[in-house]
Amino acid sequence: MASIDLNADVGEECGDDAALFDIVTTANVAAGGHAGGGDVLIETVTSCAARGVAVGAHPSYPDRENFGRLSRRGEYDAHALTTLVRSQVLDVAAACSASGTTLTHVKAHGALYHDIARDSEAADAFLAAVLDVVKNIGSDLYVTGSPTSQLQSAALARGVAFVSEAFIDRLYNPDGTLVSRSSPNAVHADPQAAIAQATSIALEGRVRVSDGSVIDLAAQTLCVHGDSPDAVAMARAVHQQLTEHGVTISPISLVTH
């Protein structure tokens, strides 16, 4: 029987996180760069712990004005990028410790996510931060990212567990990258489109892309953006559809392939 993780980006002060926690198995908690942080971060992690949802850190460039979706790569050398990511991940780790739960992973947000997917130096700097946190908290972390990305290659080289991710609410290009949010129809507003995409990825490892063709896209976890329109209804419908098709929704630690 197929099994897959369902994750959501939360703690961003723009969605119904409480409702999502009844649906998803994993949460990526905003660490204060693009949103959240402080009391919001602590409250979000506490809620995850109470609901049995696995907690990951969701670091980003410090850019609340643009919700972390504009690249600031040119402002950070490798050392500065490692320092930036480490600080945010440690904040989430501390909240986990205080809430009696364990940090399980790190997933970058927005422009940082895309930068570490295509820039090997940025990917390595990101992983350096993750490994520093691992030493600090004394437990391993996995990283989440795009399949066949520079992050995946760097994680393999450094011995960091990598979890491949696909998005249920985003349109893909034929090369497997996401269509820019500035383009029409880049975000699926129709729940049926998200359901069809999630089902295809989970059951077949394939996805229909912007030119109408179908490409291979294997993923261990599916993401719904907490700030997407009708995110809760979309996540609930996807959960129900996958379950009806015999797919078990489980956190990464229990997912087998």
**Which series of helices and strands comes N to C?**
EHEHEHEHHEHEHEEEHE
The computed structural class is alpha/beta
User: Which second-level CATH architecture applies?
Assistant: Alpha-Beta Barrel
The CATH superfamily turns out to be: Glycoside hydrolase/deacetylase
Distance between the termini: 9 Å
* Strand percent estimate: 15-25%
Q: Which percent range fits the helix content?
A: 40-55%
The averaged pLDDT comes out at 94
Written description of the protein model:
By secondary structure, this protein is α/β, with parallel strands linked by helices. The protein has a single domain, classed as Glycoside hydrolase/deacetylase (TIM Barrel, Alpha-Beta Barrel). It is 40% helix and 18% strand. The strands form 2 sheets. It has a 7-stranded parallel beta barrel with strand order 1-2-3-4-5-6-9, surrounded by 5 helices. A two-stranded antiparallel ribbon has the order 7-8. α5 packs across α6 (150-158). The N and C termini lie close together (9 Å). The mean pLDDT is 94.
How would you sum up this structure in a few lines?
This protein is 40% helix and 18% strand. It contains 8 helices and 10 strands. Helix 6 (150-158) links the parallel strand 5 (142-145) and strand 6.
List descriptors.
seven-stranded parallel β-barrel, 257 residues, two-stranded antiparallel sheet, TIM Barrel, globular, 40% helix, single chain, alpha/beta
Q: Strands, helices and their partners?
A:
Layout: E1 3-10, H1 17-20, E2 26-30, H2 38-51, E3 54-58, H3 78-99, E4 103-107, H4 110-118, H5 120-137, E5 142-145, H6 150-158, E6 162-167, H7 191-204, E7 206-208, E8 214-216, E9 221-225, H8 231-244, E10 248-249
Parallel strand pairs: 1-2, 1-9, 1-10, 2-3, 3-4, 4-5, 5-6, 6-9
Antiparallel strand pairs: 7-8
